[in-house]
Amino acid sequence: MSEVHIRRAVAGDLAALTGIYNHYVLNTPITFDIEPRTIEQRREWLAQFSATGRYQCFVAVEGSTSIGWTCSAKFREKAAYDPSIETSVYCAPGHTGKGVGRRLYSALFDALKGEDVHRAYGGITQPNEASVALHRAMGFSLMGVYHEPGRKFGRFWDVAIYERPMSAASP
To answer: Nearest-CA neighbor of 86 among 7, 168, 159?
Structure first.
């Protein structure tokens, strides 16, 4: 594997990031989106992120190919939730299990140091041992499980909710 670089996502990454995401939309229960996203929809999504603050997005690039991304986004709409974020991380098929997700999350969490972020939350559709292992390695712990909140591919899926304190003591 050639060297992987982590950097902030830019508009030029949208086609690759959309392709990675749509793979999971179409082939897995990992996201509860059912219809593939368009690049224009993802352009609106990318617009929420900035170089500072709570909401940021990073991409992993190998050579000239985007192979994964991570982001922090609004956790809930009500103002008292502002110090909390929801995180996501996706790796392209063939690039999972190689440490890319860990490097992406590390870049995101490093960028969030000093920001007004108290907790990070992630939902993991079950079963997904690779994502559970990644989140545990990055300092997340299991809070609980939503039992069958979503239906995809003709069945209901559980979602495990993980939480990470965002303090200097976190990995």
So the answer is: 159
The answer to whether 117 and 125 have CB atoms below 8 angstroms apart is: no
Residues 6+ apart with CB under 8 A from 14: 39, 42, 43, 46
Task: Extract the tokens encoding 104.
Answer: 């992406």
What are the tens digits of pLDDT across the range 76-113? 999 999 999 999 999 999 999 999 999 999 999 999 99
Residue in the block written with tokens 């490097």? 103
CA distance 9 to 47: 10
Q: What is the DSSP letter of 4?
A: E
Residue 171 to residue 162: CA distance in whole angstroms: 15
pTM of the model: 0.93
CA angle 66, 72, 121 (to 5 degrees): 125
Cβ neighbours of 58 (radius 10 Å) = 24
pLDDT (tens digit, 9 = 90+) per residue, 13-49? 999 999 999 999 999 999 999 999 999 999 999 999 9
- Strand segments (E) across 30-64: 57-62
